[in-house]
Design a protein that fits this description.
The chain is α/β, with parallel strands linked by helices. It has one domain: Nucleotidyltransferase, domain 5 (2-Layer Sandwich). Helices cover 41% and strands 26% of the residues. It has a 5-stranded mixed sheet, with helices on both faces. A 3-stranded antiparallel sheet has the order 6-7-8, with no helix packed on it. Strand 1 and strand 2 form a beta hairpin. Helix 2 runs parallel beside helix 3 and helix 4 crosses helix 5. The two termini are 13 Å apart.
Length: 151
């Protein structure tokens, strides 16, 4: 079920870049927060479930993939996490990983710009959002949100 434009403005949205390190971006239209979880998939799911309850989140968007380079336990655990996210009692949507990676590359090359987001080269630098450092996982969680807003 997709959120319509009016719903998007009122929702408390949690956007995720799931994986070994899961990047999270939360917004309710006023507040914005970046988080990161670095735990096994079951614990990550429990933390996300708790965050959904704690913040009253009613929409979850995640970076989706059906591609695994090698059949590993990590890849299987990613699929388990994605399946578990689909079962949360909130509106759940996804954005394809290829769209996220493409946007990340364009931002890095400077062919596209997003307000308040920049990449600074050098030691201790990297991706900055409103002057604060964000990890690549947090960046991609934010990009999932941005791409979803354009749908």
């Amino acid at each position: 079920m997709n959120l319509n434009i009016v719903d998007r403005m009122r929702n408390k949205i949690l956007s995720l870049d799931p994986g070994g390190k899961t990047g999270l971006y939360f917004t309710d239209g006023k507040e914005e927060e970046f988080l990161e979880i670095n735990k096994p998939w079951k614990e990550t799911h429990e933390d996300i479930k708790e965050l959904v309850k704690e913040k009253g989140i009613n929409a979850l968007i995640f970076e989706d993939t059906n591609y695994i380079h090698k059949r590993t336990r990590d890849g299987l655990n990613l699929f388990r996490l994605l399946g578990a996210l689909e079962c949360l009692e909130v509106k759940v949507n996804s954005v394809n990983v290829l769209r996220v990676k493409e946007l990340t590359k364009k931002l890095l090359k400077g062919t596209i710009k997003i307000e308040n987001l920049e990449y600074k080269k050098g030691r201790g630098k990297g991706w900055m959002f409103k002057g604060k450092r964000v990890s690549i996982h947090q960046l991609e969680a934010y990009l999932v949100y941005r791409l979803f807003k354009k749908l």
